[in-house]
Amino acid sequence: MRILGISGSLRRESHNTRLLRGVGNLLPEGVELDVFDQLGAIPPYNEDEEHETPPAVAALKAAIAEADAVLVATPEYNASIPGVLKNALDWVSRPVASTPLMGKPAAVIGASTGLFGAVWAQAETRKVLSTIGARVVDREIPIPQADESLGTDGLPLDDDARELLEATLTELIELAEAQLVPA
Question: Which of 37, 142, 158, 180 has the fewest CB neighbours in a 10 Å radius?
């Protein structure tokens, strides 16, 4: 099984990218995490240009289509989802009839250097993914003060946050496994 990880941050030393990579160490045998690394190459969404899909958008759509599930790690910018992540999701949502997110199991996690742990950004991202048609795990994992609360392995030091993270991953994997079983 493949989970596609998408970090909503472009920073080289991003806490959310570190968190995603740390999640790879929590996954059970037979489940792999691939982190999409071309988010910064996606141009601003422009409906006039939908007929010619930019290469980075095509790569993201293909990566989502090939994955069994999607895991987004997002920071919080001005109490909401980072523009670069929202822009990428807008591209992926078009055309509506063929979005690779339709019915795709998805989960959202997030860390921030502030006190709220990116909870508003997580909620906004879950809303956007649900609107696009993904089957979204309805859990929130606040990881505040990420510069101090994430270990060198990228995972939360706090036991409660780590348990929430593991529960979210378990639910995401279960959703994906249910889709893989023939009806």
Answer: 180
CA 162, 168, 171, 174 torsion-angle sign: negative
Q: Residue 39 pLDDT > 70, yes or no?
A: yes
Domain that holds residue 26: 2-180
Summarised one tens digit per residue, pLDDT across range 148-159 is 999 999 999 999
Specify the CATH number for the domain of residue 72: 3.40.50.360
Euclidean distance between CA atoms 135 and 101, whole angstroms: 8
List Cβ neighbours of 47 (8 Å cut-off, separation of 6 or more). 94
What is the domain count for the chain?
A: 1
Q: 47: exposed, middle or buried (C-beta count within 10 Å: 0-12, 13-18, 19+)?
A: exposed
Across the range 93-99, mean pLDDT stands at 93
Q: Return d(Cα 174, Cα 146) in angstroms, integer.
A: 28
Query: What contacts 161, CB < 8 A, 6 or more positions away?
Result: 141, 142, 143, 149
Per-residue pLDDT at 36 exceeds 70 = yes
| Among the listed residues 182, 9, 28, 29, the one whose alpha carbon sits nearest the alpha carbon of residue 20 | 9
| Helix 55-66 with 83-92: angle, nearest 10 deg | 70
Q: Please give the share of the chain, as a percent, with pLDDT higher than 90.
A: 89
Helix (H) or strand (E) holding 109: strand 105-111
User: Comparing C-alpha atoms, which of 7, 19, 33, 24 is closest to residue 151?
Assistant: 19
